[in-house]
Design the sequence.
RNA sequence: AGGCCAGUAGCUCAAUUGGCAGAGCACCUGAUUCCAAAUCAGGGGGUUGAGGGUUCAAGUCCUUCCUGGCCUGCCA
């Protein structure tokens, strides 16, 4: 992994703010006809698994090719679960390592830690005054999380979508890749923008929701989304032996009782993993052999383990190299933080002026 | 700030008058099975939120604190 100092992005001239000479009412600030700016965040919770990789990291790697990207490790959001301080710090570092090892290029995209850019919090406060309780009350994720951590329903959890809106709009991002579960939050962000612009004049672009090509990766139990808290995950940094051990216990077609029974790959969770890690020809072959009982589930799992390792192995090795060079990680994050803050400050200066602070 | 209620295994809860801390689910191991599931057999797991006190003996009674919930009040 190349850890040289990141340079200014070539597209830095886009999204410039209106100066005093400009006429804001005729000028949609932050809008760039040439290149869309993307903002996306990921929470530093637990350790990375292949669900995170397929759902978020891989997307980032693709997005940085086409867009001006701001990628953030959102530790302020993670705080809603009150992690141990040293664990939070470790999770942030490990996530940065995972992001870089997966192929996000810090020279191409701005990679930074949310809390290093205090403007996120500042804009979130302003936005919270633009947000109606009734709207927040409707957020299904808040209700879900409230059930999940019933002993810690804090206000941060409630205003989470407001901070999320600030995350995006502090960079005047016009596109946001989100999974199904985040669409509602994005709608709220757009609502906040409309309200703000309506009251104070055109200031923010209304971010467009880009449906993330993020598969909903099921856990090894085949019952729910892959997550560390459910203990049904395949770790991104896992050794192949560990992964095979977990795969051996993974749920398959419950109707395929004997080796000679024909299988149903279309309902088999393990087969669905092949779709992510094996090429099309292999997938077809495996499916056909499973249906005809030419291969057993163990064969299928071994094949998968091999293909999984082809993806996971190089990432694990790059991660090892990065871990050995903490200074470089810090430098990348600091540089990313500086670049992010420069943009965030511009936005915040304008917001202060607009709202009368 | 005050009042009331609650806290027991990963989860949901039980434990008689103060008398050996338990069950279900989950988890792990073995049998079986190509693997998993199902079934059967076995197993690990606890500072009973924390400290102090009363007692031969405290999950249980007293006390202080912590956490969470509900109610009343005060300030900005």
Sequence:
């Amino acid at each position: 992994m190349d850890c040289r100092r990141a340079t200014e992005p070539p597209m830095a001239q886009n999204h410039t703010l209106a100066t005093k000479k400009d006429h804001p009412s005729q000028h949609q600030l932050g809008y760039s006809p040439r290149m869309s700016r993307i903002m996306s965040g990921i929470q530093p919770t637990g350790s990375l698994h292949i669900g995170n990789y397929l759902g978020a990291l891989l997307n980032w790697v693709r997005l940085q090719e086409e867009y001006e990207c701001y990628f953030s490790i959102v530790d302020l959001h993670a705080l809603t679960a009150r992690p141990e301080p040293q664990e939070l710090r470790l999770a942030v570092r490990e996530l940065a390592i995972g992001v870089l090892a997966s192929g996000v290029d810090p020279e191409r995209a701005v990679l930074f830690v949310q809390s290093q850019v205090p403007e996120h919090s500042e804009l979130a406060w302003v936005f919270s005054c633009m947000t109606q309780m009734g709207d927040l009350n409707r957020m299904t994720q808040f209700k879900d999380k409230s059930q999940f951590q019933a002993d810690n329903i804090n206000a941060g959890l409630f205003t989470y979508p407001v901070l999320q809106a600030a995350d995006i709009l502090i960079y005047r991002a016009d596109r946001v890749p989100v999974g199904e579960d985040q669409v509602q939050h994005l709608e709220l962000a757009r609502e906040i923008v409309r309200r703000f612009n309506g009251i104070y004049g055109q200031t923010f672009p209304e971010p467009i929701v880009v449906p993330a090509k993020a598969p909903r990766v099921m856990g090894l139990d085949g019952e729910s989304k892959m997550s560390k808290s459910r203990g049904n995950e395949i770790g991104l940094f896992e050794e192949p032996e560990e992964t095979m051990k977990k795969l051996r216990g993974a749920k398959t077609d419950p109707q395929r009782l004997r080796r000679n029974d024909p299988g149903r790959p279309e309902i088999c969770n393990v087969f669905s993993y092949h779709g992510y890690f094996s090429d099309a020809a292999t997938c077809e072959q495996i499916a056909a052999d499973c249906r005809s009982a030419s291969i057993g589930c163990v064969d299928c799992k071994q094949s998968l383990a091999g293909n999984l390792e082809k993806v996971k192995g190089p990432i694990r090795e790059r991660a090892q190299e990065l871990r050995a060079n903490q200074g470089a990680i810090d430098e990348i994050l600091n540089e990313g933080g500086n670049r992010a803050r420069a943009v965030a400050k511009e936005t915040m200066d304008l917001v202060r002026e607009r709202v009368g602070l």
